Amino acid sequence: MRYAYFPGCSAESTARDMNKSTYAIARALKLDLEEPRGWTCCGATAGHQTDRLLAVALPAANLSKVKDMNMDMVVNCAACYNRMKVANHEITTNADIRRDVRDALDRDYDGTVKVRHFLEVLLEDVGLPAISKSLKRTMKGIKVACYYGCLLVRPPEILKFDDAENPKSLDRLITAMGGLSLEWPCKVDCCGGSLSLSRTDVVLRLTESILDMAVRAGADCIAVSCPMCQINLDVRQQDINREMGRNYRMPVIYITQLLGLCLGLRPAELGFEKLMVSPADVLKKMEVYSHE
After folding, report:
1. Which residues have C-beta within 8 Å of that of residue 175, sequence separation ≥ 6?
2. What distance, in Å, lies between the first and last C-alpha atoms of the chain?
3. Are strands 32-34 and 73-75 parallel, antiparallel or unpaired?
């Protein structure tokens, strides 16, 4: 199975671990991911706050490249996924926007490239039965708070990704891997997204609420599939502990990293060294050892 894989700008910086683990499990599951040649930033998340045409033209430039490849576009960053889907919607429902994008790109794009999140490929194309047969180890009942954030599911009428209020995609995969997916009320709450640097005070309040609920639910870790969510929930725990007198030590792990472990891959192949909050307890429960 071949896909045009759009890694996004954070793939070689703040989300290296997400990108590394995505490629690793793709190889393990025999998925062929091909990056569009000359791909550029999709504008997330600042572009759409600046100019409506820019917000559509930036992702459309990449979608046009994928159109030429005659493949589905696969994205594993929730923000990029959101912007690509919104751009398709804008172009197919607004003739003026399509015309202006054509003028900006010097080519016409019709909004027909199918944009899919990597989770959708895992669940729909590979399938849980095939994934289960490929597992080399299980999560051994580890309690997981699956966190989707807001960009993966909103706006629901455009993204059409799972149930906008109670999505289950991550939960289904965690269960198939032998983990215990927890019921908790914060799975689509906002973590503050790109406000991490401009309004850290807001991010600390939002992430503290999410972390508190994960602890109350009894989670051993939080599973995510969004670079901004991962950074805010992982990196900001130290700030929350210092400024709010808490003592959070909650591992925030990409779903691709957890799946990679279950497929028998080593932590070093999956970027675990980049996590700020140590996942040592999770690795120990899964009987994954540092020398592997």
Report:
1. 181
2. 29
3. unpaired
Q: What is the enclosing helix (H) or strand (E) of 244?
A: helix 237-244
In the chain, beta strands by DSSP E: 2-6, 32-34, 73-75, 115-117, 143-146, 180-181, 221-224, 252-254
CB atoms within 10 A of CB 177: 26
Q: Rounded to two decimals, what is the model's pTM?
A: 0.96
Reported as half-sphere exposure (CB side, CA atoms, 13 A), residue 50 has a value of 10
Three-state DSSP at 253 gives strand
Q: What separation in angstroms does the CA of 61 have from each of 27, 208, 220?
A: 27, 37, 41
| pLDDT digits (tens), the chain, 292 positions | 999 999 999 998 899 999 999 999 999 999 999 999 999 999 876 666 678 999 999 999 999 999 999 999 999 999 999 999 999 999 999 999 999 999 999 999 999 999 999 999 999 999 999 999 999 999 999 999 999 999 999 999 999 999 999 999 999 999 999 999 999 999 999 999 877 777 889 999 999 999 999 999 999 999 999 999 999 999 999 999 999 999 999 999 999 999 999 999 999 999 999 999 999 999 999 999 755 5
- 237, 213 in Cβ contact below 8 A? no
Q: Which two tokens stand for residue 204?
A: 């600390």
The first and second tokens of residue 232, run together, are 């805010």
